[in-house]
Amino acid sequence: MAEGATGLLGVVLFARHGDRSEFFQDPLTYNPSETTLTPLGTVQENQLGRYLQDIYINAHSSSHIGGIDFPIAKLDQILVRADAAGEGATIVSSTAALLSGLFPPTSAFKITLANGTTVEGALNGNQFIPVNSVDPNVDISLNSFTSCPNFDQHTLNFYNSPEFAAEAAIAAPFLQAAQPYLGGRSINFTNMFNIFDFINVNDIHNATFHQELPRTFRTQAYGFANFHENGVFTDTASSGIGNIAFRTILPSVFSALTNIADPSNSLKLALNGLSYKPFISFFNLTDASVDGQSLFGIVDYASALALEVHAGNPEPFITVQFKNGSTDPAFHPVTLGRFGTNATRVTLAEFISTLTPDAINSTAQWCATCGQTALRGCAACGT
């Protein structure tokens, strides 16, 4: 990442939530159940925040964002949004925990009152940076794949495809072997994400389950779930509805990147708290890979994707970094195959112009794309 790093203007970040309690989502509509962030999840996110601080805010880092304020955050330099749908409480809480590591409590966060009294911020100078929780009924951008009939049809088409049937046949012996550990859950391959999530959560939090589960089962479940979710949240065409999880995020990405590159604009860091789904669609939209290996499937808890904006000469350019969860020690440079076989950097102008045709820019456009006429503001759009 050395090339152009001294001219780093800012970063657009995407972060998955941390460890949470068990989660169920309907395999046909992806309507979710409630879930909560665990203490482990708060630690993972705080650690991610501290890692990002070391990379982007530490003045001694080669990737330091020029001009960003620290230790006290300057609120006009940062924009923080978090998906408040589905896993929303978990995602919003995770984003707050990440911020507690990115801009941790500091004794510098204090104020002197008119009577001469100096008051340090609560909890040893905690800055309580605002998180804009994005209500999916008001703003579809961070969670656009539910209540979308055409996306539901895309999912059903995938479940009825020869590729799905072939993978289901491969998975069948494993699912039969795993059935005694699943507490009566359906072993239909359409339910593969929920099977993996049950195994994953209990393997982390249930000591008896952890001791009894055959050691290969978690990895096997993860592999089959990756195939499952990658098929749901991608498409053969970049403008296909399978990529909708990131297509609705693109306009805010373009805006943040443009503002960061604009010397008259104060924005330096835009943080988006998300589920795993938009990561999959971004990887597919950009043909992303690391060290020759394609990126796809379910990213781990507390994963991070960074779109870095560099000053460049003669024009700003973007590099992309990816860190797969709390056990991955560092960022890895991402190659964006859509922009060239070995494209590890792309001009800001090319990035925006190439992806603009795939963007869904408004609720009305989302309603038309989804074939939705009533829910999530579509009745008012007249679609």
UniProtKB/TrEMBL annotation:
It comes from the Eukaryota. This is Phosphoglycerate mutase-like protein. It comes from Vararia minispora EC-137.
